[in-house]
Each structure stands twice: as C-alpha cells, then as structure tokens.
Write a structure and sequence with these properties.
Layout lengths: L6 E4 L4 E4 H6 L2 H17 L6 E3 L6 E8 L2 E8 L19 H28 L4 E6 L16 E5 L3 E8 L8 H10 L2 E7 L8 H9 L3 E4 L2 H10 L3 E6 L10 E4 L18 H21 L12 H13 L3 H12 L3 H21 L14 H10 L8 H10 L9 H13 L8 H9 L1 H4 L1 H9 L15
Parallel strand pairs: 8-9
Antiparallel strand pairs: 1-2, 1-3, 4-5, 6-7, 7-8, 10-11, 11-12
Helix pairs in contact: 7-8, 8-10, 10-11, 11-13
The structure holds zinc ion (ZN).
Length: 465
C-alpha cells in the first residue's frame, strides 16, 4: 500500500478536490485539469494551480495505468518537501503514534486551508481594505497580543476577527478573546467547518456567546462566497427546543454587532431569558392585581395567593420543607409569610419601574409610601432577617435613591442588628431569585446586562415598554 495525496487544494473557484472526487471524474474532466496544471507550471511556476493540502507543495495529476486503463492520482512535483506525510513511494507503517500525528497534520492543514480560503474570498469583496491570516496585531488597548486566524477590515462594515475552529477541544480562552476584541472594537466571529452530532463543550460556549447562532464555512458557503464575491457563511439558528432551524446563508452585512461582545444574525437567547423571568412572576402579578392591599387588610390568604404559592414552590421545591419548618418551629404560615415578603419586593420593582410609589402591602399611598412601608416592615421581627435581601433588591434599580433617606438607613441598620440575615442558598432567597432573576440570579443578570436587555427597573439600560 502506498501513500497518496488525499486532498489537493486548487485555486478558487475550483477549491478542494479529494482523491475520491478525482478518481470518480470522467476522463475528459481530469485530463483538462491535468493540462491546466501543466500550462500554469510553464507560464507561472511560482504560482501552481494545485497544491498538496498537507505540505502545500505543488502537485500534478499522474495517470496511473492499471488493469488496462488509466486512473488519475495526485503526485508531488519533485520540489515538494519529501517529509510530507503524503509523499508518494514510502510504505505506510500503521502504528498508532504515526496515525495520531497524521491526523494532527490533516487537521492543521484543513485549518490553514480554511483560513486562507476565507481570507481569499474576503479579499474579493470590493470593500475590503485589509485582510491578514494569523498575523500578529498590536492591540490598541490590551497589553497582550492575540493572533486571530483571519483579520479583516471592510469599508462601512468594520473590523472582524474570525476564529476557525475545527472539532477539537477549545482553549479556555473563548471569553477572554471576546473581551479583548470587544475592547478593540473588533467583531469576533467563530466559524466551524461542520457541526458534530455530539457537541463538545467548547462549541456550546461559542454558541452561547453568539446568542444561539452557529456559523459554518462549509462547501455551500464556499460556493456562495465565490458566486457573490464576498464572504458568505452558513448560519444555523437555535430553536427553543435546542435544535436548529433550517440552514440559511448570511454575509457579514447581516450581522447584528450592536451589542459589542458578540455578533449574531438573530439573538435567539435573550427573548427566552426574559420569558423565563416573566414566567416566574406571572401568577404573582395576577394575585396583586386581584387582591390589592387597599381592598384587604391582609390579602395573602386569598385564593389568588394560593395559586401564586403553588407556582413558586413548583419552581423552588425547597420552599415546601421550609414551610413545614415555619409551622413546626414558629406556628407561622410560611406561604403567607413568603407572599408578604414577595409583596415587599414587588412594591420595590413596581416603584422602580414607574418612578411612582406603589406598594402591595400596608395601606400607605402616594409619595413616600415605599419608604414608609419598608420602615414598618423592617422594624418587625418577622422581616428583619430579610434586610439584606430587601436592600439587594432596592440597590439594583433606580429606587436605590431611597437608601439615602435617613429613616430607612436607620431601619436597615436596626434590622441587621436585630436578626441573623437570610443569605443566598436559603429557600426564601432562592424563591426571591426565581421571582426576580434580573436582580438575584447573577448569571442571568449579567447575561441580560451584556446584551443591553436588562430591564430599567433592575438597573439596566432597557426602558420599560
Ligand atoms: Zn504533500
């Protein structure tokens, strides 16, 4: 068994041709290729029309005579490096180490070919001012340089760093790269060759950063890039069920890069995240609409609050044993106690959202109602343990100016001194986090904030709609 060149990279628009493709060609087609290679070798030997994928050395098509007919194979011209793993004429020794090394060669050669081909089609775009492959760029802001696989500047579109990622584990540098390029005003795009059926974690990380968007530079993308004279990618957009919509083609013009850190065609994640937040509160808003405190002295035993409790304990099962414990240790109705605390938090959210004091517990109304309600609740032994939780809620959004009121400052200080504080990890804190992930759930809060989708009442840029 002899080694053979398995893939030859022809000048675009021909592109990559595998040995299988070559051998399946009608004689007239490979004869033509063969004579084109020879013609170029005579007119411009420095720029061969076809190169070996692995060593990049010039190659030709040899007609191999066997069984009474000619079969085409790729062969290196003599000046190609003889240490190419595909160099013909050397017997293949199948041992594992060699096989692994060989696999590595193939993968890095494919990577190089993808980078160079992407750079080439970018270069055909008339707006392209600069395109480089793996060239060191002196960072304008960060101290440490990075090597984007492909870097391009397009007139009217901006600066792009393209990382070509094949199916191997990622360096734990994905986020660092995003931060780095964001600081430099460069849009970072991760491009895969294909989507493996079992996605390694690194792919998930990239898909998350790209808001549920996957970009491939596959054969269809290459063909479209050649046809349109600019870089075209195959875009896969995530569905709510974790699969992907039918592939579509996208160019750099289609990218939304308004959020800085990540670029995408469509943000497939934020709406889902906001929907998650909304669902946690749905039954509670219904209850507060149905049983406002002005109509009931203590509305929390109303059926609408039973439904709200059922909803939150469905999300946070740890609230059920906590409720039993409230009863067995303090003869306290945990569900009504939680509802009253929720009313305090919803009062803060509502006041922050509308910039008008509105409370869902106690009968205070009008200007100053929020501070008056909080002063009253914090002074009770039942709510003093939540001073830290309530302060977190208040501090997150625009109602945080209330923290400057002397009376409220005193109330928080007294409450903190009076009772041991409920902290993150406590079932009630978890319940509050499910009601207001925008405030208490650090990961989701940060994710929304990154995208400029954190609601105004939670301290974000987005105004209430
Ligand atoms: Zn070679």
């Amino acid at each position: 068994m002899q080694r053979t060149i398995e893939i030859a990279d022809f000048e675009l628009p021909r592109g990559a041709v595998s040995i299988q493709q070559l051998m399946a060609m009608p004689r007239s087609v490979w004869d033509h290729l063969r004579s084109e290679i020879t013609r170029r070798r005579q007119t411009d030997p420095a720029h061969p029309i076809a190169r070996c994928r692995l060593c990049k050395g010039p190659i030709f098509i040899r007609a191999h005579f066997a069984d009474g007919e000619h079969a085409p194979v790729f062969a290196h011209y003599p000046e190609s490096p003889t240490d190419c793993p595909w160099y013909q004429g050397v017997n293949l020794k199948p041992d594992d180490a060699r096989a692994a090394q060989y696999q590595g060669h193939q993968e890095s050669a494919l990577h190089r070919w993808l980078c160079e081909t992407i750079a080439e089609v970018l270069g055909k775009d008339p707006r392209c001012q600069l395109v480089t492959v793996e060239t060191y760029r002196r960072p304008a802001i960060a101290a440490r340089g990075r090597f984007p696989d492909v870097y391009a500047e397009l007139d009217g579109l901006g600066k792009f760093a393209i990382e070509v990622q094949l199916s191997k584990p990622f360096a734990p540098e994905i986020i660092a790269r995003h931060l780095h390029y964001e600081a430099e005003g460069v849009a970072l795009l991760w491009v895969f060759r294909e989507l493996p059926p079992e996605l390694p974690q690194g792919f998930h990380d990239v898909i998350t950063l790209q808001r549920g968007n996957v970009f491939l530079f596959d054969d269809a993308a290459l063909a479209a890039s050649i046809a349109q004279g600019k870089l075209v990618l195959t875009a896969l957009l995530e569905t709510d069920r974790g699969g992907f919509l039918k592939p579509r083609q996208a160019s750099l013009d289609d990218l939304d890069r308004s959020t800085g850190r990540a670029v995408f065609i469509e943000d497939r994640r934020s709406d889902r995240l906001l929907e998650y937040c909304r669902l946690g509160r749905e039954k509670w808003w219904e209850a507060f609409r149905e049983a406002p405190p002005s109509d009931f002295d203590f509305p929390f035993s109303e059926p609408c609050f039973h439904r709200a409790w059922d909803s939150i304990k469905g999300f946070v099962p740890a609230l059920s044993p906590w409720k039993r414990e409230c009863w067995s240790t303090q003869f306290m109705r945990g569900d009504q106690h939680f509802a009253e605390l929720a009313a305090i938090l919803f009062s803060i959210a509502r006041t922050a959202a509308t910039a008008k004091d509105r409370v869902y517990v106690t009968r205070y109304t009008g200007e100053g109602a929020l501070v008056a309600m909080l002063n009253a609740k914090l002074s009770s032994q039942f709510f003093a343990p939540y001073a830290s939780l309530i302060e977190t809620m208040l501090r997150a959004g625009p109602a945080r100016d209330r923290l400057d009121r002397a009376s409220l400052k005193t109330a928080f200080a007294k409450a903190a001194a009076m009772a041991e504080q409920v902290k993150s990890g406590h079932p009630v804190w978890a319940g509050a986090a499910r009601l207001f992930p925008e405030v208490f759930d650090g990961l989701r809060r940060a994710e929304l904030d990154d995208l400029g989708r954190l609601p105004g009442w939670a301290g974000g840029a987005e105004q209430p709609t």
